[in-house]
Amino acid sequence: MSDSRVSHETPPRPLAGIITKIHVENFMCHTNMEIHLGDGVNFITGQNGSGKSAILTALCVAFGVRAKETQRAAKLKDFIKTGEEAFKPEIYGDVIIVERQIRDSGSNTTTKDVLKELVEHFNIDVENPCVIMSQDKSREFLHSGNDKDKFKFFYKATSLEQVHGLLEDIGIQLESVSVLVDECESSIRPIIKELDALKLKIESMEHVDELHHEMQQVRKKLAWLLVYEGDRKIQEQASTIEKLKERIPKCQAKIDQWTDKVVALKDQFEKKKKEIDCILEKMPESGRKMDELQQDLTLATKERYELEEKRTQASNHILELGKRASSFEKQINELQEQHLRNTEAEASEVEEKLKALQEDFDAATRIIAELKVEELTLIANVSMTTQRINQIASDIKEGEHKHREIISRISKLRLNSTNKVTAFGGEKVLQLLRSIERLNGDSWAYAVEAAIGWMLNAFIVTNYGDFQCLRECAKEAGYKAWHKLNIIIYDFSIPLLNIPSHKLPQTSHPTVLSVIHSENHTVMNVLVDKGSAERQVLVSDYGVGKSVAFDQRISNLKEVFTSDGTNMYTRGSVQSIHHPDKKIISGRLCGSFAGEINRSEKEASKVQDRVKQDQVTKRNAESDLESLQGRLNTIKRRHLNIELDSTSKEFNLQSLKNLCNSYASEATSFSASNVDEIQEDILKIQGEIKAKEMILEDLHARTKEAEEKIKNLKVSVQNLSELAKGESKAYDEAEKELIAITDNLSKAETKVSGYEEIMHNKVLQEIKDAEAEHQELLLNHPEKRKTASLIFPESEVESLGGCRGSTPEELRARLNRLRQRHQREIQIHSESLDDLRSLYEKKESKILRKRKTYEALRGMLKSCQSALEMRITKFKKNAHYLKSELTWQFNNNLSNKGISGHIKINNNEKTLSLEVKMPQDASKDKVCDTRGLSGGERSFSTLCFALAIHGMTEAPFRAMDEFDVYMDAVSRKISLETLVEFALKQGSQWIFITPHDISTITSGDRVKKQQMPAPRS
């Protein structure tokens, strides 16, 4: 079978570059070995370890492969067997001997350049697996089923990898060349800009003469235009002076008119101010009188109630005495009757009567005790109600006084709102507060006023001399308390004090210094050194102030001020609280008077509402008091009546008891002595009744007088209340009139000062300036005409176009622009025009030469890029054609075993997959992965794939080591026949190395088999 498959055609002529002999000495396992190769197929067999693979390694090393790429050693010196030095090569003639000396110290090839030319000429690429496939590559190639490894094998074997790498290198080089050309082109851009600048300079230099000529013409026109303009100005100035003089009488009339109005308004202001002062003086007197009348009315009412009580008591006492006298008389009658009736029946009746009287007396005693308790309760309620009424009256009095103070404060604020200086003591100068710009909110105004108010009217001087001078000035100015003038001596040169944080109060509440802003460092230093403003803490209310001042024990704390001005501090173990001074000037630290006036009006309204509410409460309490007093009087009268009745019953009871006791012994006699005693008692009672009646008449008269007094006091209170209302209304009206007068006066004074300022600064000054300007024009006009005549004759002015339609300012501005441009051109262009033109031509020629060179380079670069793109396109087409050819060759090789297949190549993913269909597979499905085949089938299909690639490549010789690994006997036989047939057809020199039996291969002229000797022990 093998003979029939071997071709017997005439052998082709051997190719150039085949290997005829391989000689190795002291290399790997060989001490000295030489093998001759035929022109066709060469089989080298032998046992494992006989050195078959060393032959291929020697081929690779001889053709310049590095030691690592052989996968047999890391360095070339590792291939030396025993360490002897290599021998010198022979001089070759017709046969080229490629020899590489390997030493223990390294490797050296004396003809490396010649070897490189030889390899390139004969297309010998020992790194290509299609030229030399070593034992390791064979095992890896045949055993691996990785599609990426197959693609790499195909890409490298067909030299596509080499071509692709070359194309990429060329693309990178073209990009670097493009960058270099861009840099060259950018290097000439500054020269192009210089050329443009030179061109502008040349154009500017060409206009210098034109500018000079134009300047001369403008100067001539300007000279005569100034003369003509001077004539016109002289005439206009004369007429202007006449018009301005006509304004003097009108302005003076306005000044006189508003001056008279100011005088009249000042008189009205003084009168109205005196009227308000009188009203303000009367208002406290009216309030005092009202308080006195209210007090008198209360006392009179109290006196009337006391008199009425005394009258009631006297009347009751008289009635009681009358009843007692009647009782005594009745007793006498009863005694007389008892004396007449001396029987047991009468005695028994007396006892029954005595028993009834005893029961009545006991009942009266109980009622009297209950009435006493009720009377004491009512007396306590009356006392409490009276105290409450007195307290309410005191609150009403205090509220009315506070309301008058607020009204007075509002009037002062309204007067001071026109001039804030008056808020700081009338016409006194604003001293320290001038430097204070503002507070951080009006809520701290009262607190800051209470803390540093004594410093707000102080002066600050730098030494004692200024201190004395300032006091003398105050004395000369008529300041009353000049000797008490508050002056602070402080060094103005001291910079702003920087207070460390540990010396400040350790609290989150603000300090007086933190809420005051000032750009004057001296003012801030005075507040710190003289007022300790940095240690004065501000709080919102009384409770927080007590906690900060007394409970928290804050270090560096001097004082605490609440928002209403209350001061709290601790000195040692003593805790002090000072309520705000009512004399503090309120509102002067606030942002605006309008806001303070509104707050004061709201406060006055609240106080007035509270007073009205207290008055209603007082009236209700007085009504309750009258009701309680009425009940008390009723209880007293009832108590008195019951007490009188009880006394009478007690007397009768005692009489009956005495009668019963003496009835037995004195039944037959009549006690004249008892009757006399009773009559004496009756006489005494009658005397007391007469005395009480006289007292009652006196009390009645006094009660009428008290009622008359109360009536008169009520009338006086009502009249005084009406008078106070009238005064308050008059004060409000006068205050409104005063504010209106103040506004009108301010407006009138503003008008007067405005017209006076217009008169002095505008009318008279304009006349003075106009006359001076007119005089100056008259003096300068002849000189201007003379100068213009020297510059250019007047008769030739029209030849320049005349001066009409232009102004001196326009011509002067035009001349200045021309002069500036001329000077600028001269300063900028110091070179001559010829030099500039020569330089321009020189640079232009240089630029043109470089520009042409760079354009040529750019064109060549574009051509190279086009060629590269064309070659890349051709490379892709060749890769596609090679893919189709590879599939055809692969399928053709598989047909020797009755197998068909297909190859899929994905250039994007860089994968190559084999698809095989076995003849015994009736399902007609393809096996895509060769790992699904048996070992022999997979090795055979992989061999067919390798032969297909061999058929697409060219090389003078090819070598394969252990190509039949993993094959069974049948597959190996078919594979050997396929290899021999392919090798003979292909025509190159083939070297097959295998340890297996190759007896099925018949030797011939083009097929040579060699047996390697067995390895020595």
UniProtKB/TrEMBL annotation:
<dbReference type="GO" id="GO:0016887">
    <property type="term" value="F:ATP hydrolysis activity"/>
</dbReference>
<feature type="coiled-coil region">
    <location>
        <begin position="611"/>
        <end position="638"/>
    </location>
</feature>
<comment type="similarity">
    <text>Belongs to the SMC family. SMC6 subfamily.</text>
</comment>
<dbReference type="InterPro" id="IPR038729">
    <property type="entry name" value="Rad50/SbcC_AAA"/>
</dbReference>
<dbReference type="GO" id="GO:0035861">
    <property type="term" value="C:site of double-strand break"/>
</dbReference>
<keyword id="KW-0158">Chromosome</keyword>
<keyword id="KW-0234">DNA repair</keyword>
<dbReference type="InterPro" id="IPR027417">
    <property type="entry name" value="P-loop_NTPase"/>
</dbReference>
<dbReference type="GO" id="GO:0005634">
    <property type="term" value="C:nucleus"/>
</dbReference>
<keyword id="KW-0067">ATP-binding</keyword>
<dbReference type="GO" id="GO:0003684">
    <property type="term" value="F:damaged DNA binding"/>
</dbReference>
<dbReference type="GO" id="GO:0000724">
    <property type="term" value="P:double-strand break repair via homologous recombination"/>
</dbReference>
<keyword id="KW-0539">Nucleus</keyword>
<feature type="coiled-coil region">
    <location>
        <begin position="234"/>
        <end position="374"/>
    </location>
</feature>
<dbReference type="GO" id="GO:0005524">
    <property type="term" value="F:ATP binding"/>
</dbReference>
<keyword id="KW-0547">Nucleotide-binding</keyword>
<dbReference type="GO" id="GO:0003697">
    <property type="term" value="F:single-stranded DNA binding"/>
</dbReference>
<keyword id="KW-0227">DNA damage</keyword>
<dbReference type="GO" id="GO:0030915">
    <property type="term" value="C:Smc5-Smc6 complex"/>
</dbReference>
<keyword id="KW-0233">DNA recombination</keyword>
<keyword id="KW-0175">Coiled coil</keyword>
<feature type="coiled-coil region">
    <location>
        <begin position="689"/>
        <end position="780"/>
    </location>
</feature>
<protein>
    <recommendedName>
        <fullName>Rad50/SbcC-type AAA domain-containing protein</fullName>
    </recommendedName>
</protein>
<dbReference type="Pfam" id="PF13476">
    <property type="entry name" value="AAA_23"/>
</dbReference>
<feature type="domain" description="Rad50/SbcC-type AAA">
    <location>
        <begin position="21"/>
        <end position="255"/>
    </location>
</feature>
